[in-house]
Amino acid sequence: MANILITGTTRGIGLGLVRTFLDQGLTVYAATRSEAHADALVALGATHGDRLRPVFGDLDDEQAPQRLLAALGDEALDYALFNAGIYGPSHQDPAQIDTRATGALFTTNAITPLRLAQHLAPRVVDGGVLGFTSSQMGSLALNRAAEMPLYGASKAALNSLLRSWAERSAPLRHSILALHPGWVQTDMGGGQAPLTVEDSTQGLARVIQAHRGHALCAFLDYQGETLPW
Ligand SMILES: NC(=O)c1ccc[n+]([C@@H]2O[C@H](COP(=O)([O-])OP(=O)(O)OC[C@H]3O[C@@H](n4cnc5c(N)ncnc54)[C@H](OP(=O)(O)O)[C@@H]3O)[C@@H](O)[C@H]2O)c1
């Protein structure tokens, strides 16, 4: 049976993805910030046994790639999904943001996913899939981030780094997917969001698995629709 590494799995979309892939029989490496906030994740271990393999630690740490590689041991990955993200300051105003908050936002949302992916890609099987939870807010063409410009800019930076990496890596051995999960009922998405975590994660799981064996770079939503960069 296949396996997947998922980041940002204490809650929200990441926790939902862990549940979805465990229910489908995959082994899941769940990269999680801290055991102290991981009750819901740890509870999944009770029903899915050793197919759930938590790896604890802040993903922005410089040692995070080595920690994940050590957890994999000799295993190759079929899929990796870099999902962890933050919203940034609630004011979303470039005039107010300080250097520390700027660094945290762009590091977590854009740099860390690429750092981890570049270290882990050699361990992903040929034809495997590397997915990144982006957002339609990162689309320059759609221009939908007026109310959340800092967050949107961090996802645009993620998309830009993905496209540059894909270009440098041609011909691709894997699919590299920027994925918009929809507007989802999570701590980040809020209670008025139209989509449940389950609807989003089941769609994302279908999209990721449908790209097994296709070596391409694309920006897709949770229903598989192409989004403009
Ligand atoms: N919800 C939406 O409508 C929506 C729409 C478009 C895109 N997205 C994207 O989807 C992804 C998941 O969003 P969500 O709504 O599920 O958010 P969420 O409920 O706020 O959960 C975010 C997750 O990321 C983890 N995380 C953040 N920084 C981390 C770090 N440095 N190290 C380890 N874990 C870290 C959090 O861990 P802790 O619990 O330890 O903080 C948490 O598990 C994000 O990339 C987000 O930008 C969401």
UniProtKB/TrEMBL annotation:
GO MF terms, alphabetically ordered: oxidoreductase activity, acting on the CH-OH group of donors, NAD or NADP as acceptor
Domain of life: Bacteria
Pfam family, one: adh_short
Entries under InterPro entries matching the protein: NAD(P)-bd_dom_sf, SDR_enzymes, SDR_fam
Coiled coil (residue ranges): none
Annotated protein name in UniProt: SDR family oxidoreductase
Organism from which the protein derives: Pseudomonas mangiferae
